[in-house]
Structure formats: C-alpha cells, structure tokens
Amino acid sequence: MKLNISKSNLINAVNIVSKAVPSKTSLPILGCILIDASTEKIKFMANDEELGIETIQEGSILEHGIIAIDAAIFGNIVRKLPDGCDVSLETEGEKVTIRSGKIVFNISGMDGSDFPYLPEIDRSYSLDVSELTLRDIIIKTIFAIASNDANQIMTGELFEVRNREQLRVAALDGHRISVRSVELKQAYDDKKVIIPGKTLMEISKILDPSPEEMVHIYLADKHAMFQFGTTTVVSRLIEGEYFNVDQMISSDFKTHIRIGRQAFLSCLDRATLLVHEEDKKPIILKITDDNLELQIRTALGSMDENLSVEKDGDDIVIGFNPRLMIDALRAIDDDEVDVYFLSPRAPAFLRNEGSYCYLVLPVNFISSYD
Amino acid sequence: MKLNISKSNLINAVNIVSKAVPSKTSLPILGCILIDASTEKIKFMANDEELGIETIQEGSILEHGIIAIDAAIFGNIVRKLPDGCDVSLETEGEKVTIRSGKIVFNISGMDGSDFPYLPEIDRSYSLDVSELTLRDIIIKTIFAIASNDANQIMTGELFEVRNREQLRVAALDGHRISVRSVELKQAYDDKKVIIPGKTLMEISKILDPSPEEMVHIYLADKHAMFQFGTTTVVSRLIEGEYFNVDQMISSDFKTHIRIGRQAFLSCLDRATLLVHEEDKKPIILKITDDNLELQIRTALGSMDENLSVEKDGDDIVIGFNPRLMIDALRAIDDDEVDVYFLSPRAPAFLRNEGSYCYLVLPVNFISSYD
C-alpha cells in the first residue's frame, strides 16, 4: 500500500474511528485502526465488535493495499506531525513507513485481512434527523442511563418512533428518567429499539453540531447504523423489552412551581459541597407561597437558601438527591423551568410539554431530619 | 468574631494561603486556614510547618476574634458563592456561619489559638527583585530538581547572591543542571542558601507576573521570608552545602550549533512518542556540516528527522534522554538556541552568556545502536 493524504484528513480519520477502539482488549487486532486502500477509496475503520466505525477520507492512492496499525501509536504520531503538511503512508509487508517532509517514522503494523469488517445491515427501515438534533437529544438524556450493567437494558437508551412523526428517546437508572422528543420532518412507521449507551456517547462526540447535515439512521433487528458525511457507525442493539415509560410518567400534580434554572442550579451546586460521595444526605425543598427554601444538613455542616418562585397549588416539603436534580437542570436550556410535585413520596417532574420530561424520585428524609 | 468581606477578597485569600495547606496531615489544625481578626487587620494564614503563608485582606471587622476552618470545605464554599457579593463571617465558639444574601452555611471550625503562627525571622539580610523576575527564574529552573528526596539537597534550589550584583539560581538532579542569573538593581553582600523546591513552586503560583511589584526576600540562618503585596511567605531552608556548580559548568567545547528552538523541540517531542516510561532509549543526534539528524529506535519503531543548523567545529554523534533536552528547551524563550558539545561522553550545554545555562548529560548509546 502507498498513499498520500493531508495531515488534517488523517487526524480527522483517527479522531473519528478511535471512538470504536476498545481501551483494553485481549485481541491486538481490535486495538488497531484498519486502513483499507484496496479499492478507489481510502477507508479507515475501527471495531470493538459492539461498535464499529468507518470513515472515508480524501487522498491519493499510489498503490492499493490494506494495513492495520495500533491506534494509540498511530494516533500519537499523526497528531505530532507538523500542521498543514502532507503525509505519505507506505507499507512493505507489515512494516509501515510514515513520512512527512524530513520526518520518517517506521513502525510495525498487522495483517489487515484479520480485521473484523463492519457487518452488512438490512436497510429496509430508516429515518433521517439532523446531526445537531441527534447530538442534542443524546447529550440531554444519556446521563440518566445506569453506569453498571446489573440490568443491561438500563445501560442503553430507548429510541422510539411514535405517532409516525415523533422520535422519542428515553433513559433511566431506577432513580430518574430522562425523556426527550423531537418532531420528525416526515412520517415513518412506528419502531422501538434499545441502543447501547456507549454507542450513543461515542456518536455524540463525532457528530457535527450542524442543523443542515443529516444523519441516516437504519434500524435492523440486531443492529443500528448511522450514516453521516463519509462516516458510518454500526452498533449492536440491546435485546429485550424496554420499560413502559408512559406508565411511569404521570401528569398528576398538586404543586407546580416555575423557577429560574440558573439560580436553582447554583443553589443545588453549593449544597453538594456538604455532601460526601457515599453520603446519601438529601436536599430538602420547602415550598410555601412564592418561596422555595432549600436546606441540607450533613456531617460537614448545614446550608440554607431561599429562592423566589411562582407557585400554583399546595405547599410541600420534599427531599431529593441534589446530584440527580442538577443533572436534569443541566440538560435543560430554558431560563425558567416548570417543576411539578404530587406528594413527598411521588416523583417530581421537570417538564416542557412536547420537548422534555425529567423525572426525579424523592428521598425519604424523615429519618435524617427532625 | 464577626466580619464582612467581599467574595473576591475572600477568594484571593483562600487561593494564596491554600498553597501552604498540606494535602495530608495527621494534625487536623494544619489542614485549616486561620482567620485572625484579633487586631485591626484581617489576616489569613496556613502553615504546614515547612512553609507558612499569611495574607492580609481588606474587609470590616465588626467583632474581633480568631478561628481556624478546614481549608478544603471553606475554599469550596467561598468559590461557590455568587460572584460580586459580600460575605459575612460570624463565629460563636467554634461554630462558623457564612452568609451571603439569602445563603447561609453553618460549619464547624477549630480553636484558632492552637494554630502554629509563622516564626519571627531575622531581617538583617534582604534583597529585592520584581515579582516577575522571581517567578520567571523559579519556573525556568525548578523542573531540574530531584523529585524524590534520596538526596535532600537536590530537592531544593541554590539561591546565590554573587559578585554583589547578581542573583544566580541553580537546580540539579544528577542528570542535568539548570542555572539562571539576573542582575540585581543594587549591590548586596554575597550569600548562599538552599530553598526547598516545594516552597518555590508554591510561591511561583501566587506571584503576580508584574515587573513593577517588588518582592523583599529576607535570608536568615534557617529560614527565608518573601514579602510581596500584603502577603508573607516563610519557608525553612535546607541545611548543608550545595554542589559546586561552577566546577560542573565548563565552557570547553569542540562543536557548537545554533538551532531553531521550536523545530528542535517539536522533533524531540515526536521522538518521545516512541519511548515508553521505563524505557531508557536515547535520541541520537548526528551533527555533520550544517545538518542535524535525529534518530530514535525503540521496541515501538523508529523515527528519523533532519534539521538545518549553523555549525562551528567538529562533527559529533551523541545520545540524550529526549525528555531532559525537552525540559531545557521549554525553559528557554530565545528563538535560536546555542548548544555546545565537547565529546559523546561529556555534557551538552544550552547557554546564553549571562542569563542561562542548561547542562544535559549524554546517554551512552553504544549498547543500543550499531
């Protein structure tokens, strides 16, 4: 193989496909980036067998061929080459020579024919959203997935096409639920799949925040495929039935407040100063008239703060893990947030009809407060 | 104690004195910041018994008193208070109330009378340099001190007033030496002390990079004291005789090159990509005519790069640990650097007469290269 490619295209390729390189692997070939110049295109690929990414970059192929190169070493070398330069990649057997100006690197590659290519996906079901929309909807829900895989379904997100023109994404971990919806630009058949959180996190990092560029999402039985620009991402799906989200989201409430998001967030943020990692001390919200009093008491001390709110309905005293409330508020863009409460033992909802709903379970604080 | 102080002054105080709070201590009082409002000034203090820092900040004292507060908790609370606000600090016994607007924190402090105050220092010998100069001379030499304390003297820097009008600072770790000199604005008696590296690192972080503001440095038998603005830093000195730096720095050479600093640095930086942490593989410099060829070969691969240089004297082939050369080049501001070599077994010198001299020992590479 012999090819010439600009450093910027090479960096692009490395940054995109590296997201599918596992941080640890017992199979050295999976720790590699595959460069496939066997056809008229230069393809870069990485695949951890759950998630595979392929991207095509411009360059000139002087001699066809395929090589796999350790992703960490290759990425480091490419990043440290002088900016704006052209790079030549040449292989002789598994020996790789990387040249740029008066710089020559020689490293060992691996036989590219051992590399696991991306699987072929059935393309009969697809939908389109913009890169910006997909990125946004992932970032604003993904924090609610469960981090450990005691329940594998909770480590993924529900992607659901409903009412033919709405894409709804949901994540939950047993303490909270994040739900975001967007209207689709055309009608599709209804569909539900569970996409691994890891896939979505990596995709969100390589999507361009552009409202014009589209992502074509293909949903097959066992895989999802995302195509945008010259990049293709293929992911396994999580099998099984997702939780019934509609059943968990009630619109009953007895107290509604409208509160300044930033002031609420800053207050909760201050409250967490007094909370140690293992410490489960809740923050207590006392809503009376147009005042929200927040209180926290821990082994380190106590904090008390008052915020003005607009209120409808009953007074209420309710406790929360401040971190869960913070995550939800950070995922909201609105300056003012509507929060709905039913009782001290029922979840609170941060909701904007048609766009988002964040549910946070309360903490029973009777034992910790007098 | 009761006092009012702006958040910005409080943050300032916390940021300055925190540098003397030990990260671990078996004596809880040493993990505290002392606030002493027993006189007409508000003093903040921290002291790990090697290094002590005191700073005075503006504010109004409504009730005199002294309190010690855990530095981490206090610092975190202060940082998260709303910007631009005024803060009131009030104590009742060891209970501390921090108030700002509608925010109230209650935390536990400790009896301030147990706190170790800074020692009184003999002020008979002092010299003045600007904050900028002191900061600069520290940052550009300190990397060469030894990180472990197998030899305690190597963990400090030699501060030396010589020829009455020159301050020379030296650091060494057995593989390299950094020496920087500045001319003083007036004459002083000659003097030598060894100041702990930790003290100097912390001071460099709180010095303002200002050429107008002066630092008064007091050098006593067992302590050094630095006064600048309203801040006082007191440090123990390291006892013993420093190495004879003059004897180590020779001006003999057989090869002299002048090389572009950034190009040399980038090349060495690329070369380190192929060096694993424990791996002692040197980079080989082959100087012939007006060309410098750099080569490195490790288990990961090899790199070869050519740079143009101006050369006087003999050709030479010499090996170095690239990281040591990188540290020295990073501490130099000049665009072009003069490097002097005597033989493959003698140190190289990066030197600018009257301002700096960086010595780097070569590595014997015969065993690793053919």
What would you note in describing this structure?
The structure is a homodimer of 370-residue chains. The mean pLDDT of chain A is 95. In chain A, strands 10-6-2-3-4-18-17-16-11 form a 9-stranded antiparallel β-sheet. In chain A, strands 15-12-13-14-27-26-25-19-23 form a 9-stranded antiparallel β-sheet. Chain A is an alpha+beta fold. Chain A is 17% helix and 43% strand. Chain A has 3 domains: 2-114, DNA Polymerase III, subunit A, domain 2 (DNA Polymerase III, Chain A, domain 2); 126-246, DNA Polymerase III, Chain A, domain 2, CATH 3.10.150.10; 250-360, DNA Polymerase III, subunit A, domain 2 (DNA Polymerase III, Chain A, domain 2), CATH 3.10.150. The radius of gyration of chain A is 25 Å and the shape is elongated. In chain A, helix 1 (7-17) runs antiparallel to helix 2 (71-80). Chain A is built from 7 helices and 27 strands. The longest helix of chain A has 11 residues, at 7-17. Chain A binds chain B through residues 73, 76-77, 80-82, 102-108, 266-267, 269-270, 273-274, 300-307, and chain B through 73, 76-77, 80-82, 102-108, 266-267, 269-270, 273-274, 300-307.
Keywords for this structure?
nine-stranded antiparallel β-sheet; alpha+beta; 7 helices; homodimer; 3 domains; DNA Polymerase III, Chain A, domain 2; 27 strands; elongated; about 375 residues
Any idea how many domains of chain A?
Answer: 3
Report how far the terminal alpha carbons of chain A are from each other.
74 Å
Query: Biggest β-sheet of chain A, characterized?
Result: 9 strands, antiparallel
Number of strands of chain A: 27
The helix tally of chain A amounts to 7
- Most extensive chain interface and residues per partner: A-B, 27 and 27 residues
Corresponding CATH architecture of the largest domain in chain A? Roll
Shape type of chain A: elongated
- By secondary-structure content and strand pairing, the structural class of chain A works out as alpha+beta
Q: Which whole number gives the mean pLDDT of chain A?
A: 95
User: What radius of gyration of chain A results from the CA coordinates?
Assistant: 25 Å
Q: What is the quaternary state of this protein?
A: homodimer
| CATH domain class name of the largest domain in chain A | Alpha Beta
Trace the largest sheet of chain A across and list its strands: 10-6-2-3-4-18-17-16-11
Instruction: Write the CATH homologous superfamily of the largest domain in chain A.
Output: DNA Polymerase III, subunit A, domain 2
Q: Poorly predicted ranges of chain A (pLDDT <50, ≥5 residues)?
A: none
Fraction of residues in β-strands of chain A: 35-45%
User: What is the CATH T-level topology of the largest domain in chain A?
Assistant: DNA Polymerase III, Chain A, domain 2
The helix fraction of chain A, in percent, is: 10-25%
